[in-house]
Amino acid sequence: LGIHLLLGSFAERSDDPRRCYNTSVLFGPDGGRLAVYRKIHLFDVDVSPEVRFQESVTVKPGAEAVVAKTELGSVGLTVCFDLRFSGLYRELTRQGAELITIPSAFTATTGRDHWRVLVRARAIETQCYVMAAAQCGTHDEEGLRESYGHSLIVDPWGVVLAELPGGPGVALAEVDLDRVREVRRAIPATDHDRW
Q: Which of 74-88, 105-119, 133-147 is predicted with the least confidence, judged by mean pLDDT?
């Protein structure tokens, strides 16, 4: 197809027979694998009687922040709940990320109030484009596991360039890496980061 393709996240076998990795893989236009990221922050929450998850029972955490150098720019990879941990995103920026991907399945409960705010915050603080593909719909037989959807593409200033409603679709936006440099020149936040 001549495109970059991010697959995931999906279950990948680990060295622990009881737990897999939650993995995302970036492929280049020639079909070659450019990067593999294993989700670091696992979704162990007790938001309400209907929204309880303990991902750590079946998933082993990854250990590395991953940035892939591509002809599109430097792409940082994250997965879903990682979105809540700004330190990971600062590390991606230190490694040179200009675009960051976040394939996600935020719950409807948390997504309504947190999804858009967190995605925009990560774009603003990293001064990167953020592409956040979000699963939507109901995913279990009981109808209790509902994902929020609302895929987003946000520019380095925090402007939402594309957003899908709660259902399936395709979000498109133009990415201009000069915009990353322009925003970083205007507000050189990473130059002043003391952590």
A: 133-147
Q: What's the pLDDT at 52?
A: 86
Token look-up 């076998």 returns: 13
Q: Exposed (0-12), middle (13-18) or buried (19+): which is 152, by Cβ within 10 Å?
A: buried
pLDDT tens string 140-171: 777 778 899 999 999 999 999 999 998 899 99
Token couple for 14: 């680990």
Number of other CB atoms surrounding residue 100 within 10 Å: 27
Measured between alpha carbons, how far is 47 from 69 in angstroms, rounded to an integer?
37
Domains and CATH numbers, the chain: 13-19+40-192 (3.60.110.10)
DSSP assignment of 33-87 equals EEEEEE--S--EEEEETTEEEEGGGTB------EEEEETTEEEEE--GGGGG-HH
